[in-house]
Structure formats: C-alpha cells, structure tokens
C-alpha cells in the first residue's frame, strides 16, 4: 500500500509531486532523462488561444537563492497543444493539469472549453497570476471580484475540475482565495512568482529586457509557506503548494503548512532529476518522522 | 543522453588575464558526441548563484575521461568557479546541445575556423577533430588586445593560424574580416563562435557559403525546458518561429535565426 498516493478533485495521483507549469515545458525534454510515469501529475506550460513568441531576451537573471524570469507565456497555441503535445503526453499514465492563460476572459473560456475535452487533461490550472505579460495574466489575479468572475466563467465551460493559480503580489491572499472559492474553484495552486528586478551596474539598465521578472526559487519559499498556511485555513478547497521546493524536506514543510500536494518549479532547472530524487527521498523521510501516510500531516502546523 | 555528475578538478590554470582553463574528470566525458557541445556547471553547492553556468567544451580526452573548459571571469559565478582547486568536485549537467556538424567534411576539404575572444574555446576541439578527418583547417582569431589572446599556439598544431587585434598589439590590426580579406582565405565551410557583431559580419560577408555559427544567451536549464534562450527564425513562415539556443543549437547554420 502506497504511503504517497493522493486524491484531489480530478486527480488520482501516485504521489503528490508534480513539476510546476512553465518549468517543464510539455515534458519532452525531461522524458529524455527519466520515465515520466513516476510523477504524480504534470502541470504543462501555459497555453493561450494563439501561438506566442514571448518576451525579448535576456529573459532570466539571478539573485541569491532565486531566479527572475520574464519568458512571457511562450507557447505554440491551443491548437498545437491539443493536437500534438497532449496526445504525445498520453503515452504516460500521468494526469495532466493544463495551465490556461489569455488576454481576455473570452480567451480563458475558449482555451478551457477545448483543452478540458482532451482525455488526459484531468484538471485545469487557471493562470491569473503571470506577472510577465502586458495583458491578461496577473491583471485578473489582483482584484477579488475579477478573479471570481474569471473562475465562474471558466467553471461554466470546463469539463474537468478547475484550480486557480494565485499571485503573491496582492495585499491579502486570503481575500483572493475566498473569491475564487466563491467562484466555484475546485482547488487553489500557489504561489506564482513575486515581481522583482535586477539592474546591471555596467549599463545602468535592468538586466531583464522586460524590465521586471517573476522571482522564484528557495528565496520565495517562506512567502509561499506563509500563504499556504493562511489560505489553507481560510478556504475548504485543497491547495497545491509551490514556491522554492527542492527537497523532500521542503515537501513536508508545505504539507505541514496546509498543502494537499506540491509542485516543483525552478529546481527542475538546477537539477533536471530533482522530481525523481524528491519522490525517492520522500518515503524515507516519512519513516524518519514516523508518518504513516503523507495525507496524515496536512496542516499539522495550524494553531 | 544528459547526465548529472560530480566531476573532479584535475587542473585549473589562468591562461590569460582573467581567463582560466579548468580540466574536469568524470564518466560524463564519454557521452559527448560532437565538438561545440556544452555543459552546465554548478559553481557552488550553495544557493548563490542558484543556476548552473553554461560553458562550452574546449578539449576532450575520452580515454582519460577528461575535458577542459575555458572561461573568463565575468561575474560571481565564474569567479567562484575560478577558486576551484585540484581535487574539488563540481556538479556538471551535460553534455548539452548539438555541436558543429563535421561528419560530412571530407579529407582535403577546407575549413575556415573563426574565433572571437572568449568564443574561441569550443573551436579547439572542433579543429582537432576536423584535422583528424584530414580536413585542411585554417584559423582566424580576433581579440581586443595582445593580453587577451588565447589558444593561438594550441590551434597552430592543427593548421595555419592568423590573429587580429583591435589595437594592433598582435597580428593584423583590425578584425577577423580584415584578415580574411588580407590573405584572401578560401574555404568549403566556415565555422565560427564569438561576439554577435562578429557573427553578423561573417554572415553578411558570405551569404552564399556554408557558415555555421555557435551562439550564446543567458540560460536557466540548458535542456530546452525553460524557454529563456530563444532566438527568432529568419524565415517568417517557419512553423515554430523560434529556436532554443540550448537544445536546438547552440550551433546554427547562418541564416536560420536572427542574430
């Protein structure tokens, strides 16, 4: 009997570890390195109605313990993702969470309606938190009423459960969580990146061509944990936690904070084998802390 | 097949001002398939900097499981790398990317190899392998000044080697293109790596010839997953519209991507 299997709306998972959207492409690069069947789920790269090239380069830079990115939702567009990437991913026995983005609410509806019909797409992740695009993205994720409306309208057309990915760039994350729950969200994923910047001393200009980028990596983990802790005690829907996870210990910390599953992002760029390594280490860690099943510890840190 | 391996430092020497040659030993070396491939190096096991550094493979010795990389101190990452001592371990992800195409070059054909500054190192292994195939190699290397000249002697072992410096302190005063004109150098194929203005000049100078360019860009993963290092394609009707330098490149035929 597995001690790592997890059931969430739409998702029957062997374990609670999944690569985060935007950090795993559509899986092809990593399939050359290891068997993707070991993953709990895969959150694919954000998909928009139209193909997008993304932002000019440089698109990444660093800060101690973290990286800044402004990729700009580069993706081949809905038609290609549905016609090529998802069928290719169907060779793996792994539920796919499709990250959906757009410039308008109608864009979100269009992608959600079509992509949720694909067999291996078991849930949607509504991206209302990308800080690196001029239209859409985070503009839907900072005002509770707007976030609620997008959620409602996507829920109305989606054939699978809808998770909403929240931005940490808000005054009160609890209000955002309550709004999307009221809008019918089946779950919440958090956190997306924190908006930041770096400046090149030689040129005196921002290093990232887009000026600002999203901060991710271990540097944001305490912020992510605090938000998982707050949100999980505010809403009744499950949370997939993410933000700087790079070890099995980090996974336990997110569970204690109140997460029901976790996603691994930036760490995939630092060590492409990080997901299999975490899955391997997690069971040993349960022994060390005398935990019978991973779900037993959700929210253990709550007062 | 990409591997992650802790390789051992067997040599670290400063070959020019702020330019170092680092020799690493490990099994990963046997997986290298072409000159011009690169590796991603974790310069520290701590989190600052968090991302690995992409650096090209300059020299390969599969029998001894050794490879050399040559890098210039540009920032914190490469500075930390320069502190590595013999016996230290360095975590390496690689080999990455597609190297220079050489299989179709035949004995007696002429290759012109053009290096600019710190772009020169991957051309060393390239030249070695071309020479082994009996290809007649000629090198043109461009640097800012005499102090920055690297690999002139090493490359001379495989073929005639010309140097240009911008300030004229070594070789021809001017650019690599001036050397090519001055000596009326001819070739069946041109391979190059160096600063973008140099690559652009070579691309413009030889529109009808076979020219292969090795590019660089800030990267995160190095395996094609993060989409940090994309370049637009020159053909507007290209199905993708872009190429990833790390996994589609870093070597491209001139005219494939917008420099």
Automatic annotation (TrEMBL), chain A:
Keywords: Cytoplasm, Flavoprotein, FMN, NAD, Oxidoreductase, Pyrimidine biosynthesis
EC id: 1.3.-.-
Main location: cytoplasm
Cell compartments where the protein resides: Cytoplasm
Enzyme class, UniProt record, top EC level: oxidoreductase
Pfam families: DHO_dh
Record note on cofactor: Binds 1 FMN per subunit.
Pathway stated in the Swiss-Prot or TrEMBL entry: Pyrimidine metabolism; UMP biosynthesis via de novo pathway; orotate from (S)-dihydroorotate (NAD(+) route): step 1/1
Matching InterPro entries: Aldolase_TIM (IPR013785), DHO_dehydrogenase (IPR050074), DHOD_1B (IPR033888), Dihydroorotate_DH_1 (IPR024920), Dihydroorotate_DH_1_2 (IPR012135), Dihydroorotate_DH_cat (IPR005720), Dihydroorotate_DH_CS (IPR001295), Dihydroorotate_DH_I (IPR049622)
Binding-site positions, substrate: 45, 69-73, 127, 192-193
Location of the active site: 130 (nucleophile)
GO molecular function: dihydroorotate dehydrogenase (NAD+) activity
Domain Dihydroorotate dehydrogenase catalytic stretches: 4-286
Cofactor: FMN
Catalytic activities: (S)-dihydroorotate + NAD(+) = orotate + NADH + H(+); (S)-dihydroorotate + A = orotate + AH2
Matches recorded under HAMAP family: DHO_dh_type1
Subunit structure: Heterotetramer of 2 PyrK and 2 PyrD type B subunits.
Family according to the record: Belongs to the dihydroorotate dehydrogenase family. Type 1 subfamily.
Job of this protein: Catalyzes the conversion of dihydroorotate to orotate with NAD(+) as electron acceptor.
Protein name stated in the entry: Dihydroorotate dehydrogenase
Lineage: Bacteria, Bacillati, Bacillota, Bacilli, Bacillales
Name of the encoding gene: pyrD
Automatic annotation (TrEMBL), chain B:
Functional summary from the UniProt entry: Responsible for channeling the electrons from the oxidation of dihydroorotate from the FMN redox center in the PyrD type B subunit to the ultimate electron acceptor NAD(+).
Recorded name of the encoding gene: pyrK
Protein name in the entry: Dihydroorotate dehydrogenase B (NAD(+)), electron transfer subunit
UniProt entry tagged with the keyword Metal-binding: yes
Subunit structure: Heterotetramer of 2 PyrK and 2 PyrD type B subunits.
Pathway per the UniProt entry: Pyrimidine metabolism; UMP biosynthesis via de novo pathway; orotate from (S)-dihydroorotate (NAD(+) route): step 1/1
Domain FAD-binding FR-type: 2-102
NCBIfam families: PRK00054.1-2 (NF000797), PRK00054.1-4 (NF000799)
Species name: Pallidibacillus pasinlerensis
Record-listed FAD binding positions: 53-56, 70-72, 77-78
Binding positions ([2Fe-2S] cluster): 221, 226, 229, 246
Pfam family, one: NAD_binding_1
HAMAP family the record matches: DHODB_Fe_S_bind (MF_01211)
Cofactors that this protein relies on: [2Fe-2S] cluster; FAD
Keywords noted in UniProt: 2Fe-2S, Electron transport, FAD, Flavoprotein, Iron, Iron-sulfur, Metal-binding, Pyrimidine biosynthesis, Transport
Family label: Belongs to the PyrK family.
Cofactor note: Binds 1 [2Fe-2S] cluster per subunit.
InterPro entries (UniProt xref): Cyt_c3_hydrogenase_gsu (IPR012165), Dihydroorotate_DH_ele_sf (IPR037117), Dihydroorotate_DH_Fe-S-bd (IPR019480), Dihydroorotate_DHASE_ETsu (IPR023455), FAD-bd_FR_type (IPR017927), FNR_nucleotide-bd (IPR039261), OxRdtase_FAD/NAD-bd (IPR001433), PyrK_electron_transfer (IPR050353)
């Amino acid at each position: 009997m597995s001690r790592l299997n997890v059931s969430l709306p739409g998702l029957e998972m062997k374990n609670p570890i999944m690569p985060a959207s935007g950090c795993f492409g559509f899986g092809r690069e990593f399939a050359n390195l290891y068997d993707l069947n070991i993953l709990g789920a895969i959150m694919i790269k954000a998909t928009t109605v139209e193909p997008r090239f993304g932002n000019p380069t440089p698109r990444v830079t660093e800060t101690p313990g973290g990286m800044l990115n402004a990729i700009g939702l580069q993706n081949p567009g809905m038609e290609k993702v549905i016609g090529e990437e998802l069928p290719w991913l169907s060779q793996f026995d792994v539920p796919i969470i499709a990250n959906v983005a757009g410039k308008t609410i109608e864009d979100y509806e269009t992608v959600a309606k079509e992509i949720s019909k694909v067999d291996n797409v078991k849930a949607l992740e509504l991206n209302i938190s990308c800080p690196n695009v001029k239209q859409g993205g985070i503009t839907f994720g900072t005002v509770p009423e707007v976030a609620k409306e997008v959620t409602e309208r996507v829920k109305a057309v989606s054939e699978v459960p809808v998770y909403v990915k929240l931005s940490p760039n808000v005054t009160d994350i609890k209000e955002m969580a309550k709004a999307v729950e009221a809008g019918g969200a089946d779950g919440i994923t958090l956190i997306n990146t924190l908006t930041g910047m770096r400046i090149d001393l030689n040129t005196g200009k921002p290093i990232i061509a887009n000026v600002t980028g999203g901060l991710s990596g271990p540097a944001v983990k305490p912020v992510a944990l605090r938000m998982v802790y707050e949100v999980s005690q505010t809403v009744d829907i499950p949370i997939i936690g993410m933000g700087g996870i790079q070890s099995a210990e980090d996974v336990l910390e997110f569970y204690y904070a109140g997460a029901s599953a976790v996603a691994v992002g930036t760490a995939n760029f630092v060590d492409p084998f990080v997901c299999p390594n975490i899955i391997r280490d997690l069971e040993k860690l349960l022994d060390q802390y005398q935990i019978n099943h991973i779900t037993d510890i959700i929210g253990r840190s709550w007062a | 097949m990409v591997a992650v391996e802790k390789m051992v430092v067997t040599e670290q020497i400063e070959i020019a001002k702020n330019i170092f040659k680092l020799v690493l030993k490990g099994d990963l070396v046997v997986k290298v398939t072409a000159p011009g491939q690169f590796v991603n190096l974790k310069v520290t096991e701590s989190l600052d900097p968090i991302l690995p550094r992409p650096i090209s493979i300059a020299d390969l010795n599969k029998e001894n499981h050794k490879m050399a990389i040559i890098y210039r101190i540009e920032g914190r990452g490469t500075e930390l790398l320069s502190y590595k001592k013999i016996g230290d371990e360095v975590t390496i992800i690689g080999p990455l990317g597609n190297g220079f195409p050489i299989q179709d070059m035949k004995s007696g054909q002429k290759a012109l190899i053009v290096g600019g500054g710190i772009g020169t190192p991957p051309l060393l292994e390239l030249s070695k392998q071309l020479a082994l195939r009996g290809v007649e190699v000629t090198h043109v290397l461009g640097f800012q000044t005499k102090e920055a000249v690297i690999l002139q002697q090493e490359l001379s072992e495989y073929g005639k080697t010309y140097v240009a410096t911008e300030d004229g302190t070594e070789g021809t005063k001017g650019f690599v293109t001036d050397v090519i004109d001055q000596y009326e150098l001819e070739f069946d194929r041109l391979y190059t790596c160096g600063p973008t203005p140099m690559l652009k000049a070579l691309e413009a100078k030889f529109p009808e010839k076979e020219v292969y360019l090795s590019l660089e860009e800030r990267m995160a993963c190095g395996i094609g997953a993060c989409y940090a290092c994309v370049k637009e394609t020159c053909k507007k009707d290209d199905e993708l519209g872009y190429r990833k330098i790390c996994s589609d490149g870093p070597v491209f035929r001139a005219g494939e991507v917008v420099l």
